[in-house]
Amino acid sequence: MSKIYYSDEANQDILDIKKHFEIELQNPSVSKRILSEITQRIRTLEDFPKSGRKLSAIIDIETDYRFLGCGNYLAFYRIDGDNIYIGRVIHGRRNYIAMLFGELEQD
After folding, report:
1. Spatial distance between the Cα atoms of 33 and 41, rounded to a whole number of angstroms
2. Which residues have C-beta within 8 Å of that of residue 93, sequence separation ≥ 6?
3. In-domain check, residue 106
4. Which tens digits make up the pLDDT trace of 37-74?
5. What number of other Cβ atoms are within 10 A of residue 6's Cβ?
6. In whole angstroms, what is the distance from residue 15 CA to residue 30 CA?
7. Using CA atoms, how far apart are residues 31 and 96, in angstroms rounded to an integer?
8. 86 falls within a domain
9. What is the pLDDT of residues 95-105, one digit of tens each?
10. Enclosing domain of residue 21
């Protein structure tokens, strides 16, 4: 079984999601449900670390990032041996490529 670690950015993403639903939308029950959905989905990586799709399969960037759908959110992660590192948790409609890699130069 793999061990999951969260980056500071991923932890901040989760706090921002919580804040958005609890404070901005004043809906703590939805916040709890969404956060539970995200964390339960991420926990499946402990037993199936390669279940997420390779990011390089959908974009023309060489990267070892994989991603896993968690409802409307995407968890971006890397595998290193038996360790899984969650890099970011980003809403699927956001420009996650720019959030992960910054502005990329186009040829």
Report:
1. 12
2. 72
3. no
4. 999 999 999 999 999 999 999 998 899 999 999 999 99
5. 20
6. 14
7. 21
8. yes
9. 999 999 886 55
10. 3-101
- In angstroms, rounded to a whole number, what is the distance separating the alpha carbons of residues 104 and 107? 10
CA atoms within 13 A on the CB side of 52: 28
Measured in whole angstroms, how far is the alpha carbon of residue 88 from the centre of its chain? 4
CATH code: domain of residue 16: 3.30.2310.20
The label of the residue with tokens 């991420």 reads 42
Domain count, the chain: 1
Residue 72 lies in a domain: yes
With a CB cutoff of 8 Å and minimum separation 6, the contacts of 80 are: none
Identity of the amino acid at 80: D
Characterize 60-88 residue by residue with b for buried, 16 or more Cβ atoms within 10 angstroms of its Cβ, and e for exposed: eeeeebbbbebeebbbbbbbeeeebbbbb
